[in-house]
Amino acid sequence: MRVTWxxxxxxGKLSTADKKELPDSAYAFPEKRKEPMSDGSHVRNAIARFDxxxxxxxxxxxxxxxxxxxxxxxCQVNMTETHWQELGxxxxxxxxxxxx
Length: 100
Description:
Elements: H1 16-21, E1 27-29, E2 34-36, H2 40-49, H3 58-74
Antiparallel strand pairs: 1-2
């Protein structure tokens, strides 16, 4: 998956107006403009909220994961996950333990 994220020099808490000024390339989900990643704090937030993002396809999640990995590397955020299905409190990996 091609990374679309690019560093953007906007740090700290982002207001709604600030978010409107960010380019699409500053978001984990660029087409939906969801999960801005302008610094390490925002990258950690995108990782933590990944499974809470609604209205996106698996392809968009794969794209977002590639963007999050690039942003994490740039911002020196430790990320151990290697697949998007591993992110969040409710991983997107089917769990057979609860079936039966």
